[in-house]
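Notebook, student rotation project (T.W.).
Task set for the rotation: take a protein with a known small-molecule partner, predict the structure of the complex, and write up what can be learned from the model alone. Partner molecule chosen: S-adenosylmethionine. Sequence and SMILES entered below by T.W., checked by me.
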Amino acid sequence: MPDAPADPARPLVPEPAYDHYLVGLDLRDRDVVIVGGGSVAQRRLGTLVAAGANVTVVAIQPTPAVESHAGVRVVNRAYRTGDLDGAWYAMAATDDPEVNAQVVADAEAAHIFCVRADEARRGTAVTPASVRRDGFNVGVLASGDHRRSAALRRAIAAGLGDGTLAAAPEGHHAAGVALVGGGPGDPELITVRGRRLLAEADVVVADRLGPASLLDELGPTVEIIDAAKVPYGRAMRQEAINDVLVERARAGKFVVRLKGGDPFVYGRGFEELIACVEAGVPVTVVPGITSAIAGPAAAGIPVTHRAVTHEVVVVSGHVAPDHPDSLVDWNALGALRGTVVIMMGVERLAQFADALIAGGRDSATPVAMIENASTSRQRTLRATLHTAAEVARTEDLRPPAIVVVGDVAAFDAASGTTGGERSDGVGDRSASEPGMETDPAAR
Ligand SMILES: C[S@@+](CC[C@H](N)C(=O)[O-])C[C@H]1O[C@@H](n2cnc3c(N)ncnc32)[C@H](O)[C@@H]1O
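Predicted structure of the complex:
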């Protein structure tokens, strides 16, 4: 459980949205104020002064090291509102949480980014663990987990030091295409191979879904093609994507087709593979973590659970149950007792729920809807088959979302509960039937 916010003016960012934007500040000749003159100030002063900042420390009792630091102005008194005037950057680093909260509040009012040393999540900036070597300045942030960022910093420092980590130029991979599953969105949920090939790409053709933030890490010479913007109509768009893959590979480039989830799960990956094979272009497939499984997992829902469900069916909601193009036997799905995972199902949720109920599924069957799974915008709605469409409507559920139907949809990993008894008549689940819940912190 996260701490209850002590400062209601600045509530904790719900997990896992604690994701900062890493940036380099030009602090030359700019005022920076550190409130507090202890070990935090001492650690930061060196790099701030080296960056050319005009540093002022406001502290009742600065340590001798802070007091005597070259190039630092020290104000020996308690903090007052107004001390940040003119500053571009601030740090609240006293041992008094109330003072730190006041500094952050004043900084926020003045639009000054401010680090809060005692409770990083309540500040508006955080200091990355950093290492300088050979002209590089590497910063590491780990969603507030200082031990992890410090550990990675140590590893980077060691690697740069002993040469096992080196900046290799791009474009040394043989020409061809890699169809890479990027996972559901969290950049850490791509495979090791996928990430390595991405780092070696000359061209990246990227989908709308998937780990978009990884594109930020690509070198400046890498050509990024937004597949969602490739022109022509829907059917033609796939052809145009195929063409671009083949054409760039024939031009000698190594092309990564970065797709959301797994390339072969509603990803049209096999069409791209066929296009490459037919064109004689070398192609490799790197499977990805599909959102069909990872989406529920990110919300604390296992798609199978011993003695509860022995089957999981992933189904496309791309067309309505009665659409002539539908290849899904919704009646058969309604007769299942296990988990049904509906992808692309937001728009027609009412029709799918009706079809499952018509096929025999209990209308009280739990449903979970996970929007933007594994990203900072993840949201989970809970309902039953009977209420799902209404809950989705009132809560304005938007794609991309995964809809999980089945007893596991009532599970809650945060509390370690299974949300009640089975919906097939075993036990009484009325007392624990889930209503609708939006609880990103419960992951
Ligand atoms: C065209 S399919 C692509 C599926 C992808 N290949 C995979 O394996 O996850 C798009 C659908 O995947 C689901 N989806 C993909 N990423 C998602 C995410 N981060 N959160 C929730 N649903 C997601 C949604 O149902 C969305 O409509």
